[in-house]
Design a protein that fits this description.
Layout lengths: L10 E5 L4 H15 L4 E6 L1 H16 L4 E5 L25 H9 L2 H10 L6 E5 L5 H8 L3 E5 L3 H11 L12 E3 L8 E3 L12 H16 L2 E4 L7 H11 L2 E4 L10 H5 L9 H9 L6 E5 L8 H13 L4 E5 L4 H9 L2 H4 L4 E5 L4 H5 L4 E6 L3 H9 L4 E3 L6 H11 L3 E3 L20 H12 L3 H21 L4 H14 L1 H4 L1
Parallel strand pairs: 1-2, 1-4, 2-3, 4-5, 5-8, 8-9, 10-11, 10-13, 11-12, 13-14, 14-15
Antiparallel strand pairs: 6-7
Helix pairs in contact: 6-8, 11-17
EC number: 2.4.1.-
Enzyme class: transferase
Family: Belongs to the UDP-glycosyltransferase family.
Length: 489
Amino acid sequence: MAVLTQQQQLHFILIPFMAQGHMLPMIDISRLLALRGVKVTILLTPHNAARVEPVISRAQDSGLSIQVIHLIFPCAEAALPAGCENFDLLPSFDMAAKFVDATNMLRPQVEEVLGELKPSPNCIIADMCFPWATDVALKLHIPHIVFHGMCCFSLVCEHNLRNWDRLEGMESDFYFEVPGLPDKIEMTKAQLANMATPHSKEWGKFMDQIKDAENNAYGILVNSFEELEPEYIKELERTKGKHVWTVGPVSLCNKVEPDKGERGNKASIDVHHCLQWLDSKPTRSVLFVCLGSLSRLPTPQMVELGLALESSKRPFIWVIRHVSTEFGKWLQEEQYEERVKGRGLIIHGWSPQVLILSHPSLGAFITHCGWNSTLEGITSGLPLVTLPLFAEQFSNEKFAVNVIKTGVRVGMEVPVLFGMEETVGVQVSRDEIMLAVEKVFDEGEEGDMRRRRAKMLQEKSWRAVEEGGSSSLNIAKLIQDVAGWREEC
């Protein structure tokens, strides 16, 4: 591994967006850069810094040059509740626009911090949700790199659809072929909500700002790897006309149990108890169910999912992040946890997902198809049962089911937007969920082929991050490109 000398040391600034799916991979990236001799400064608000403090502290104790500088999140100025520093703390989606306004208000603080920082920064890597980072970097005469929390496949889908004039006037439930892709992918207009079809003028304006910032950025950083989606990486480079560095799967930098167990937040279950439970189950038998940090299903759909897990007769871990009053009442009145005790383990809150997925007793993963979770399932060699809810999760489902062919679709058709869950109702019955579970565990030729593909991609993902692997080389190239940026200009 090439490591910079003290005289050559570069200083990278990382600005993660305040949502778990955006923040966690950037924390991993900070460690990957620091391992190669880069000095890294991460800008976080106090609440978000506290979530990742154990992992950062261990990295610092190991000698990595990583520091965290706190930004004061302007809750009051943006008319947000006090302490609402992460997207998963929003009481309702109605406040999403205010949250974005608050992140825009961070710019003066960032400019002040970076103007005084020593040594001076050489590069800003900012989440796509901070389009103003391009102008900040321009003032400092340093490159700005956009971090995308999506795969290249979904980014290409989004790009092609935003530049396609046939969506307007199309019925929301009509399946059409996404234009300009190497694979035949069919979606509906409804499934594009908040991805290529903004739900409001404000959101559309924000998406345009993101696009403009990307056009003016030095390049794009993606948590993926070349062997997973080679055609789509090339297509993204072609359509954007930018450097694209794929440096993932970045979660694989979490090699020890504490880092896996404390990645992102303190687990809501005793990690050792969780591991003991997993140890008691046969190899490749456990179904892991986790629908992300922001996802919320309507109560009737949660009940259907719970009954499907109970009826499956398979051991399972079910992570329940958000419990409505109605669903909490159902759990209690039906004594659900008592009924599945021993075979089912319920985690209320945050789970040590990377640690659980890497356990040999895991056999399959029911996922909302957020990209981090999808990629973590891939690195664990698991077939997926796909239950997308919003944003690019429907295109990630298409990638898992139709492109890499490791996923089984349950049948979600309409997005379940944050704050509008109860207006949707039941989309997939317990029988449909059970059918997908049985299909993913099927011992026949189709199931065996799916597991072989999952295992093959797992092996490729691990090789990508090893010394000399594609992602390892891309991180080195990223550092080299930034070091040579002035000459290029």
